[in-house]
Amino acid sequence: MLNKSIAELSHSLQAKKISSHELTQFFLERIKKLDPQLNSFITVTEQQALDAAKKADAQLAQGKAGPLTGIPIAQKDIFCTLGVKTSCGSKMLDNFISPYDATVIKRFNEAGMVMLGKTNMDEFAMGSSNENSYYGSVKNPWNVEYVPGGSSGGSAAAVAASLAPVATGTDTGGSIRQPAALCGISGIKPTYGRISRYGMIAFASSLDQGGLFAKSAEDLAWVLNTMAGFDENDSTSANIAVPDYTNTLNDSLKGLRIGLPKEFFSDALDKDIGNAIQTAIKVYEKLGATFHEINLPNTSLSIPAYYVIAPAECSSNLARFDGVRYGHRCEDPKDLEDLYKRSRSEGFGKEVTRRIMIGTYALSAGYYDAYYIKAQKIRRLVADDFRKAFKSVDVILGPTTPSPAFKLGEKTSDPISMYLSDIYTIAVNLAGLPGMSIPAGFTKGLPIGMQLIGNAFAEARLLNVAHAYQKETDWHTKTPEGF
Ligand code: GLN
Questions:
Q1: What CATH architecture does domain 6-251+401-477 belong to?
Q2: Whole-model pTM above 0.90?
Q3: How far is the CA of 61 from the centre of ligand 1 (A)?
Q4: Which of 236, 271, 276, 433 has its CA 20 to 30 A from that of 404?
Q5: Confidence of residue 383 (pLDDT cuts 50, 70, 90)
Q6: Ligand 1 center to residue 58 CA distance, Å?
Q7: First vs last Cα of the chain: how many Å apart?
Q8: Domain boundaries, the chain
C-alpha cells in the first residue's frame, strides 16, 4: 500500500482487493507511529476518517463509487472544515471550529475522499520553512534536522513520509513548489482562478492559490480533476472548462519548446541543483523537446514587489481577527481598544505581526503611491516578461529553489535570506501562472526540485511534461529512510 499510485489504490478499491476502511486505518497507524518525529499534523480526525471510509466502502459496494472514492487525503489547516478545528497555524484560531466546509473540501467529500486530518503550516501561510507555526516546526523526513519548506510544510512532509497519499497546499509565493522541492515530492500550484478560494483562509488574496502534493504528476492529475473548477462563491474563480488531466498525461513531447530563463541560472544557484537541471534537460531532449534561452529580466524585482503587495493584502485580510466574533480574545479587556490590541498582539506571532506592520505602512496615505502602486507596476512588468516568453516557448523549466533544505533555525533570525528562498517561485504568483515542482535528484542526501512553469490554464500540459520525465527517471519513487 505504501508506494502505490492513486490509480492503483483506486483500482484495488474498485476490485475490492482492499477496503477504504483498511486503507484509512493503514495511514492513521502510520501517522500515529511516525508523525511524532515530524509534527506534520495539527489535528488527526481519526473517527471522522473511519466513518467516511465506511461510507466510501458502502458506495463501492453499491457500485456508486467515483475514481477517488475511499482514497485518503490530508488537508492543509488553512481550509475550513465543518466541525473540525481550522487553525491556520495560529494561536489566533486555535479555538476556531469551522461552521462550514471550504469549496474544495466539499468537492473532495462529495468525491468520497477520506480526510485523515489537518496539516501543520506556517502561521497564516507566511513563511518558507514551517518554523512560524504556533504548533511548532515541521521536520523534513529526509533529515529531521532540516526544514521541510513552507508554508505548506506539514502537507509536504506528510506525503514525503507516506503518511498520506495526497495532500492539499496553498501557494502565495511558492508554498507548494518550495516544500515539494525540499521534501522530494511532486507539487502543483494551478493558475490563479483555477481552484476555488472560498473557505481557504486568506493571506494575500490576489496571489493565494490552492493546489496539491503527491508522489507523482499522475497522482496530481487524478486528484486535480476533482479539485479544479468554477465556484460561484469565489468571484475570482475562472469559469473555464476543466479538462480531464489524466487524458493528456502520455502525449508526446516531440517539438515541445522549453524555455530556460537566463536569470534562474546565476551564481546564486547551488551547483548540484544546477547540474541536476542540466541532466534533466538531456532527458527532455531525448524525448524530442527543444531548449531555448529566454529572459525574465524583472525576476530580481519580484521579491521586493511581493513583499509590498503580500503584506499590504495581508494587513487588510487579517484585520478581521479582532477578538470580537471568533478566534482568540484576551482576558478581561478594559475597553474596546484594549480588546483589539491585546487580542491581536497575543493571537498573532512575530512574522505575521511584522507583515501586518509593513502592509499597513505601505498602504498608508502618503506612502501608498511610493510603495503599493509602484509594486503593482512592477507586478505588471513581471507578468509581461512571462507573456513575452510564452510567445516563443510552451513551458519554462528551471530550479525550484536556489538551495536544498536548510537546517532548522538557520535562517530564522534573518528574514531577508528566508525571503530569498522563493526567488524562483514568487514571480509565477505575481503573474498568476501555473507552476509545478518535481523531484530531479539529490545533494548530500537532500532532495532537489525542478520547476516547470506553464502559460495560464495550461495545467494539463505541465502535468504531461512532468509525467514524461517521471516515466524516464525514478527520483519520484525514492522514499526517506525510516518512513
Ligand atoms: N514564503 C513566502 C512568504 O512567506 C510565500 C508563502 C506562501 O506561498 N504562502 O510569504
A1: Alpha-Beta Complex (3.90)
A2: yes
A3: 43
A4: 433
A5: very high
A6: 41
A7: 13
A8: 6-251+401-477
